[in-house]
Q: What sequence folds into this?
């Protein structure tokens, strides 16, 4: 398992420039002018570089700064362990770094750290930069124990993700073993999340969509069903309802703007390629439904899209937030 160990951007640390008295004045002005940002006390980054980072990378910067300042070994856990292991989430990441401490210590937050007095019994730990971090399985369970069912599903799916570069971070057996050694309060709802988890969700939004489809009463789809298009090109659909011969696809914008996904193509080329792919796929199946992020935020819209396209639900439509 490849843990994140390097800073994604340059960090300016005041303690490294104690012999430059002019530095503090210029630094304060840079922060006031919106050119720099304080990530934790005494550590600053250029605002332009910070905004280029993903939310997960931004949290990783905070974790690395806490790790480098610690006077002794620290156990990173929960969200901070997730950032170290590239277990992504939806939305903002916390500004405090999660550290696990002994149960007798009493949890508290101070400065840049949230201390969680959960102890270490039955917890699988991995060495990281002179410190320790909870295993991917333990991290996913910890995130699931604190968040919603959706947040937990995303964490578990991320840990199991089979097509991750470098391989999956955990196995279902690993999750179940970690679950069996966790007896603390707050874990009661986690088994249902683990049971629902899959190794086939290729993105956090696909995981979110799986939860929504289930809650909205739609049939559980097959994931990553392969289709061979003209020219022997094999593509995968996000969701496939075999009894209806119907494909469902979350249309994320990353494929049109993320340089890593574009892989040298322009956004216009990516858009045309996606259109050609959808047209070729439509000729092979009875129907296709496509939706975007706003349809996740208002499940009534997702419900209406699928029902209008011929996918039946066992439940009545939810109340739309736009009403």
A:
């Amino acid at each position: 398992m490849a843990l994140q160990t390097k800073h994604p951007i340059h960090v300016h640390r005041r303690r490294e420039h104690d012999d430059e008295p002019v530095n503090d004045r210029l630094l304060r002005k840079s922060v006031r002018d919106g050119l720099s940002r304080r990530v934790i006390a005494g550590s600053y980054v250029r605002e332009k570089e910070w905004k280029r980072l993903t939310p997960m990378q931004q949290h990783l910067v905070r974790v690395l700064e806490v790790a480098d300042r610690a006077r002794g070994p620290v156990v990173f856990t929960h969200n901070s362990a997730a950032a170290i292991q590239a277990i992504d989430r939806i939305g903002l990441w916390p500004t405090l770094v999660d550290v696990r401490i002994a149960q007798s210590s009493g949890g508290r937050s101070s400065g840049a750290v949230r201390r969680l007095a959960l102890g270490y019994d039955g917890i699988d730990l991995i060495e990281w930069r002179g410190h320790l971090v909870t295993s991917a399985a333990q991290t996913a369970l910890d995130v699931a124990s604190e968040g919603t069912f959706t947040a937990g599903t995303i964490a578990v799916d991320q840990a199991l993700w089979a097509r991750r570069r470098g391989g999956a971070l955990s196995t279902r057996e690993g999750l179940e073993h970690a679950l069996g050694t966790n007896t603390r309060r707050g874990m009661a709802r986690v088994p249902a999340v683990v049971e629902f988890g899959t190794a086939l969700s290729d993105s956090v939004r696909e995981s979110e969509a799986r939860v929504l489809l289930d809650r909205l009463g739609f049939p559980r789809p097959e994931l990553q069903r392969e289709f061979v298009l003209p020219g022997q090109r094999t593509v995968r659909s996000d969701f496939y309802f075999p009894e209806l011969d119907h494909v469902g696809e979350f249309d994320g914008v990353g494929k049109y703007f993320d340089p890593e996904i574009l892989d040298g193509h322009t956004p216009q080329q990516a858009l045309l390629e996606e259109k050609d792919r959808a047209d070729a796929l439509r000729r092979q199946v009875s129907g296709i439904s496509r939706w975007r992020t706003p349809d996740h935020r208002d499940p009534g819209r997702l419900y209406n899209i699928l029902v209008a396209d011929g996918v039946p639900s066992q439940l009545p439509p939810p109340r739309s937030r736009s009403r």
Notes: The chain has a mean pLDDT of 90. Residues 267-282 form the longest helix (16 residues). The CA atoms of residues 89 and 204 lie 6 Å apart. The radius of gyration is 22 Å.
